[in-house]
Amino acid sequence: MDAVPARARGYVAAVALSAVLCLLPLPATHVPWGAPVLLAALYAACEHAVRRRFGGTFYPVLLAGAFLLPAPAAALVPVPAALLCPVEHRPALLRRVWRAAQPALAVWAAARTHGALGGEHAVVGSDFPSALLPAGAAVLAFCLVLTALDGGLRAAAGLVPLRRAWRGQLARSLAPVAVHGLAGLMMAVLWRSPYGPVAALLVLLPMGVSCWVFAQYHRERAAHQATIRALVQAVDIKDGYTRGHSERVGHASVLIARELGMDDDRVEVLRFAGILHDVGKLGVPTRLLRKEGPLTPQERRIIELHPEYGHEMVRGISFLGEARAAILHHHERLDGSGYPYGLAGSQIPECARIVAVADAFDAMTSTRCYSRARPVEAAVAELERCAGAHFDPRMVGALVRALRRTGWHPAVTADEPAHGAPPAERTPSTGAPR
Known about the structure:
single chain; mainly alpha; 63% helix
């Protein structure tokens, strides 16, 4: 990120200038300087620890400042942290300016909102639940400014189109910031109580624990993603003709699952199932996967073992859940003519019926060594023709509805076969992968 676009640099400069304007009334502000100095030092220490260990941002101290201090003094609290905390990526100066200006504007807006609604008197008097309304409005203002500025920077840097720069940002950030706001309100109330700042510091202990738990969750999730990525890369290297197929099947499985109204956890599991459905090909000889001529019956029986190989490979990976059943049964057919066990109808797990449709659809719309890509419309017509015999009609209908709404843009996953090369034997009708 050494070459930052000029628009992004100008945007950061404008945000920094706005933050400086918020700080201008500071000399005329009547406030005991012990509180902002202590909060600034505390925020710098917390921010350094949280960024170094957990990779996140720690807002309770900032929001406590918004509830305790006038707006210009509250805006000063994040500045020392931006100057003192190490910056891992270049350009360091630009990043420091941004880290100071963005939270300064956000906490200034929060403090102004809190003060306008009389929140300071509610904090001093420990007036609950009256203190919750101005605090909640201040948290909302804080979150709005953070997300607005962040989306603007992403658009200015060219990372996302302007129309998508703020999409979903507020919804994702509001809940965690609200939790930090509640902790900040508790800090402010205890700060103004007879017990003083020492009691307020105790609020940071449970927040530190929650940050640790949250960081552990994200590390575990990253480990899951790395495991899946390694397995998929191994399959892609072994069977070059289907490179990218796993990710597209995962995407199509997600389209079907969302169309069926499944919750987010199940959608994620279906994505894993689609991505890993062919992992068992690691146990199949490469010469069979890349064979351009027809397969012999014995060779086909070997290839048809790949669902069982895949199930064995992932059986001990607990986070995959029902995805393991999809890996084992995604070649079963509704009429019982599939493999490896010839299950029929409702005997086939729901997740496997979803992946079967997604797998067949991508196989038909991708060029391989043994078949040319079909148009999406032709693939959909083939799925609808085989619905009820090979595929679950409900899953086919869900995919068709999703495609009408979002479209499909598959990438060719192999070079065109050499002129005159005989196509390999395929699964009848659907062109599904071996």
